[in-house]
Specification:
heterodimer; A: about 250 residues; 8 helices; about 35% helix; globular; B: about 425 residues; alpha/beta; 11-stranded mixed β-sheet; 21 strands
């Protein structure tokens, strides 16, 4: 589904990603772990097309298309969804406005009919129950006055409505209490299918108790220094990152 | 290019021809007011950028044109008129074309009890004492040359009188439409609102046709004790039109006035909004929006005079400027020595959509009392990058994403309008202008 080859990216002239290689196939869940400042969020933002980052080397293919040539909105229409670490507040824009515009823009891009108001409402109501949000959220401005947990649940709700092929969850567990974490993880798990894929960016193992990864990668200093299965996540939880970093240093 | 003196000569000559068309009306007291006004006009000079009040507002483009008074009703496409009208079953509707009252497009039969609604010239004939008691008492022909000019040519416009204790449920819509035919029109309104009343008035200014025109407009608003008034002014003139207006509001004790001054059109626009508290415990909300593109120039000058204690004023003006357009905001708030316990808040916020758009903003607060709460501020900025990225990351095209954010920025100016139809109409005009 997505193939990242030797990806290098800068921000303000500073190199953050120093040669990422990663392939994610349909139906898979990949966890990207690593200490703070290792480049996890940068990777998520670069895949989504944030213009502040400059890609200096490498390639990214998404279902055969050269992703780096596409705008942020075209990537979203192709099926990439980023659940933001810090969802932005947009006063004056209701959640309905956001979702209706997004959904119809994506449908139009794919040559599908736009949904009318009734069809849209039916769809949205069905998806809301998934993350246990109440309907009055629809009329409220995007994320304005939301608690941290509500913001994260709103991200997963949007994901449920937009049904991406590749969802990237950027530190979706940070700032969540255990109940909210369960709701969010449960929502993500229900949305999983053999046709889509998920990248979970996190620095704790606890989300991975609920969203079971097929692969776990350790990102350090802009590179993936170790990959393994779900047992790697547990090992990291018990032993920290230092041993992986030392192991990688010895290889160099 | 005319000099300012030549333009003045032109208007003076046109006043003579205007006078000749009046026949018997020359003996009426209104005409004495007109004659005094043209007298004042002849002694005043057109402002230049050396005048503090016109520092950023160069009227040379206006001086370079030649305008003649409108002398007849042109043909007008009903579809064009209907674009601006609200449901005639739910609104009382007055339409003026080139300044002339159009019976055909208006709907003023069966007026509610307690409401007198007439053209200003009819009203002066029917209720001379009532009208002349107030007419031209709340604006200054002494200082403002454009007010003097409007008063000199005052013939067309609307008179509203709300009798004591009357609640006028149906909003009154007044539409002034002008054909762009090198003419000038001088709509003149007098709105008298008695004690313990409620009324909603919408004024719309629009134009059609290929050439240019000049709307020089004055409204006097007298709001008596305990009256609640909502006033929406929609300026959607042709993009090559000149538009100068003065709205003067007198607020008496415990009255409540909400103003929405919405501007989309015009090549050169100057609006003066002056509100004065002449009684305590009154509230005044001034909301404004200007959305400009191309080479449009829109200037809003507002002043709020807290002459009495315990009043509240809240002002919010927002601007969205694109291309090489320019905006000016100048907001004065005076809090006089006696006006203790005043609350006065003022804000002007602008978004520039291009590098060449420009806004000059000057909020001014002059406080002579010591027990007051006042604040003011101005911002000029671009669209928020994080918000834009968020919308795009959800698949929304850049152009739509920008429109959504601009719309959100503008909408809090109009969202408190109580009339749903008016809000929808403004939202549609805004969307049309932005997309």
């Amino acid at each position: 589904m997505i193939e990242i080859k030797n990806l290098h990216a800068n921000i303000d002239g500073r190199e953050i990603l120093k040669g990422i290689n990663l392939t994610v196939n349909k139906g898979e869940v990949h966890a990207i772990m690593g200490p703070n400042g290792s480049g996890k969020s940068t990777l998520a933002q670069v895949i989504t097309g944030r213009e502040d980052y400059e890609v200096t080397q490498g390639e990214v293919f998404f279902n055969g298309k050269n992703l780096l040539e596409l705008s942020t909105e075209a990537r979203a229409c192709e099926g990439i969804f980023l659940a933001f670490q810090y969802p932005v507040e947009i006063p004056g824009v209701s959640n309905t406005t956001l979702l209706k515009n997004a959904l119809n823009s994506i449908r139009k891009y794919r040559g599908e009919e736009e949904l009318d108001a009734m069809e849209f409402l039916t769809l949205v109501k069905k998806k809301m129950s998934l993350v246990e949000l109440s309907e009055d959220l629809l009329r409220r401005s995007v994320n304005e006055g939301f608690s941290g947990g509500e913001k994260k649940r709103n991200e997963i709700f949007q994901m449920a409505v937009l049904q991406p092929k590749l969802a990237i969850l950027d530190e979706t567990d940070s700032g969540l209490d255990i109940d909210a974490l369960r709701i969010v993880a449960n929502g993500v798990t229900k949305l999983k299918s053999p046709e889509n894929a998920t990248i979970v960016v996190t620095h704790y193992q606890r989300l991975l108790n609920y969203i079971i990864p097929d692969f776990v990668h350790v990102l350090y200093n802009g590179k993936i220094i170790k990959s393994g299965d779900k047992s790697l996540a547990l090992e990291l939880e018990n032993k920290g990152y230092d041993w992986v970093i030392e192991e990688a240093a010895e290889l160099v | 290019m005319n000099s300012s003196i030549e333009l003045k000569e032109q208007f003076l000559k046109q006043f003579q021809s205007f006078e000749n068309t009046l026949n018997g009306e020359k003996e009426l007291p209104l005409h004495q007011i007109r004659k005094d006004a043209i007298e004042k006009f002849s002694t005043l000079n057109f402002p230049s950028i050396k005048d503090e009040e016109w520092k950023y507002t160069n009227i040379n483009p206006l001086l370079s044109k030649t305008f003649k008074p409108a002398d007849s009703i042109p043909e007008v496409d009903p579809e064009f008129i209907n674009k601006y009208l609200f449901d005639k079953k739910e609104f009382i509707t007055l339409v003026f074309v080139n300044g002339y009252f159009s019976k055909e497009f208006s709907e003023i039969d069966s007026l509610p009890k307690g409401l007198i609604l007439e053209t200003i010239s009819e009203a002066i004939k029917k209720h001379p004492d009532l009208v002349l008691n107030y007419f031209s008492k709340y604006v200054s022909t002494e200082k403002n040359i454009f007010t003097a000019l409007n008063t000199a040519f005052a013939d067309h416009g609307t008179f509203v009188f709300v009798e004591e204790d009357a609640i006028i449920e149906k909003p009154i819509q007044i539409l002034y439409v002008t054909k762009a035919d090198d003419i000038f029109v001088s709509p003149r309104n007098l709105f008298l609102v008695s004690k313990n009343t409620q009324v909603k008035i919408i004024e719309t200014y629009a134009g059609f046709g290929e050439r240019t025109y000049f709307t020089n407009q004055v409204t006097e608003f007298v709001i008596n004790d305990n009256a609640v008034v909502e006033h929406v002014r929609i300026q959607d003139e042709q993009l090559n039109a000149f538009h100068i207006s003065t709205l003067s509001v007198d607020l008496e004790k415990s009255s409540n006035f909400s103003s929405y001054n919405i501007n989309f059109g015009g090549s050169f626009v100057r609006n003066n909004v002056n509100a004065k508290f002449n009684g305590g415990f009154a509230e005044c909300r001034l909301n404004g929006l200007y959305v400009t593109e191309g080479t449009q120039f829109i200037d809003n000058h507002t002043s709020i005079d807290h002459a009495k204690p315990n009043c509240l004023s809240n002002e919010l003006y927002k601007g969205i400027l694109n291309d090489t357009s320019r905006g000016v905001f100048n907001g004065k708030v005076f809090v006089r020595q006696d006006a203790q316990k005043t609350n006065a808040y003022q804000q002007n916020k602008n978004i520039l959509l291009s590098n060449d758009a420009l806004v000059n903003t000057k909020p001014q607060l002059e406080i002579f009392a010591d027990d007051v709460k006042c604040s003011h501020g101005a911002t000029v900025g671009q669209l928020d990058k994080d918000q834009l990225f968020y919308l795009k990351a959800r698949g929304i095209q850049e152009k739509e994403a920008k429109a959504i954010l601009i719309y959100a920025f503008a909408s809090d100016v109009v969202h408190s309008i109580s009339m749903l139809q008016v809000r929808d109409h403004l939202e549609a005009l805004l969307a049309k202008k932005l997309l």
